[in-house]
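Task: complex structure prediction.
Instruction: return C-alpha cells for all chains below.
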Amino acid sequence: MRMNRVSLITAVLLCGCSDVIPFSGGVLTGTPAAAPADWTEAARPDVVQLETRPGDPYSVKLWVIGLGPALYVHAGANRATWVEHIDDNPDVRLLIGDALYELRAIRVNDPQEFEAFSNAYEIKYGRRPRNENVAEAYLFRLEARG
Amino acid sequence: MKRTGEDSSMVFRTYLAPVGLLAILVSLALPAIADCDAYSELHGKAWVDGDCMETPLGDRWWPHPRWGAGDEAGSTNWYTQPEVVQRALQQIEKGRVLKIGHGYEAAMPLFGSRQFTLRIPGAPTGGVLGENRVIYMDEFLATEVGQVGTQFDGLGHIGVAVGSDGDKAEMRFYNGFRGQEMLDPYGLKRLGTEKLHPIVARGVLIDVAAARSVDAMEAGQVITMADVRRALERQGMSDFELQPGDAVLFRTGWERYWITDNDKYNDGCPGIGMEVARWLAENEVGVTGADNWPVEAVPNPDPDCAFCVHTFLQTRHGIVNQENLSLATLAAKGVYQFAYFYTPAPIRGATGSIGSPTVMW
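Output:
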C-alpha cells in the first residue's frame, strides 16, 4: 500500500509537469520555412501552434484550415487573448510540425470567404464551425509578410 | 568526553529530529491505512481518493477548508467576492443576452416518477371586479419544483449514507451536516436553496460534441480531459485558465432528445467523469452545468459508481450544479466565454430550483 502511495504521488507530480490545461507557451522554435503557394497539404495536421505578440511571444494551439493559397485560424465569437494580440500587432508565427512560418493575420469579414472556409472546415473536421454571423466571428487569414 | 550544549543541539537536529518527525508521520498514517483496509475492495477506483477510501464519505471532508464549519452556501460564496463578480462582468462586450434554459411544460422529460402539472383554476381565477370589470388569473403548480426541467442542484439535494440504511445520524451532506439535523417533511432545515447567494460568474462553454464532430455523444460516454483540451483548441482557447468561481458548461448534444425522444433522454446520457470532476474541483469552480439531466455520464463505466461525480463535486466540495441546459444556440453563435447569471429560487428548505439561467456577452 505504501508503494502504491509513492507511485500515486510520483504520478501526480509528473502529471503536474505535462501538457495540461491551460496551454499557453512562449516563443516557438522550428525550422524557418517559406509560405507555400498552396497550403492544402502543409496545413493537413489537426492542430498547429500560433505565436502572437512579437515583443513578448505568446503561443496557443489552434485548429487550422488550408484552402489553396489561403490559411485560416478561427476563434468563434471569442475575443481570446491571442485575438487581442493580433489587434495590436498582426505579425504572427505559425508552427506546423517543425516548419516555422512568419505570417501576418488579416481579419476576414467577407461572408463568401467565410462560407468557403466553413465548407473546407466541414470537410476536414466533420462539422461546420459554429458561427452564424461572420461579423461576430474572429476568423483570420494568414498571409506571408509583405 | 563531555558534550557541550552546542553538541547536544547538533545531535538533536541531526538524528533525533528526523526520527521524531518520521514517528509523527507514521502515527498519522496508521489510522488512515487502517481505515483504507475496511474498504480495500474499492482501491483503484476512479471515484476513490487516491488509493484510500476512508469511508463512503469521511470527516476529512468537513469543515469545508475554504468556507468553514457551518457554511451552507458552498461555491456560491464566490459571488460575494467583488473580484469574481467583476471578472464575470468583464465578459460583457457586445451587450447580448441569451436564456440557456428550456421552457417548462408537462411534455418535458422528467426523471423517475416526477410530475409537472400546471392548472389555471377557474380560468379566469377571479373577477369580474369593479366598474372597470377586472379579471385575474393564478396558476396552481404541482411538481418537484427544484428538480424538474432546467434545474439547479442545491447542496441539500445529494447526500451519502455512511452508516446503515435508514440511519439518519450517518446520512452526511455537504460540510458534514447530518440527515437527522436537516431532514424534515416540510423542507430541509439545513442547506436549503434560500441559503445560496445569487450567481454572477464568468462562464465558459466547452463544446465537446463539436470537438468530437458529432451531433450528440452517446449515452454513457465519458468526457475526458483529452476531450476538454481538444474542445478548447478547437475554440481557440487552449490558453484558457480556469479561475475560482467560474461556471463551466459542457455541451454533449444530448438536448436534441429533449421532448423529441424523452425515453432516450432519460435513459442515460454522456457527461463528465471523475477525471474532469477532479480538474474542476482543483480549480475551485463555482458552477458546473451541461445540456443533459445529471451533467455526469450515466451509466458510469464503473457499475459501483452511482452518481459519484455528484457526491464528489456537490457533497464533498460544495460545488453547485445546473442541469438540463439548452446550449445549442449559444454554441451555434460560437460564444464560449460569457457572464453567467442565475439566482436559485429562495424557497426555504428546497433541494434545488427551477429558473432561467441567463448569459450575457
